[in-house]
Amino acid sequence: MTTIITTPSGEEIRIDGTKVCRGSSPEKCWQEDPEIITAIIQSARRKGWKIERSESLAEILRKKEKAHGAI
Predict the structure, then answer these.
(1) Domain span at residue 32?
(2) I want to staple 16 with a disulfide (CB 3.0 to 4.6 A). Which of 2, 23, 43, 68 is the partner?
(3) How many domains does the chain have?
(4) DSSP for 38-55, written as a single string
(5) How do residues 15-64 score in pLDDT, each as one tens digit?
(6) pTM higher than 0.90, yes or no?
């Protein structure tokens, strides 16, 4: 599951597992501790920033494979 936080300035922060990315550039990605990720999400909630959750492409493909058998 990917969490997408949008700041008031329109910047996106994407969190996928323990990987955090600012914007769409791979150079702006890093690994973070789960406790820090929880704190980032809680802080964004308190500030009223937009928070969305979406499935990654890998998760969608895994579910399809499970439902229809391996390809």
Answers:
(1) 2-68
(2) 2
(3) 1
(4) HHHHHHHHHHT-EEEEE-
(5) 998 999 998 788 899 999 999 999 999 999 999 999 998 877 677 777 77
(6) no
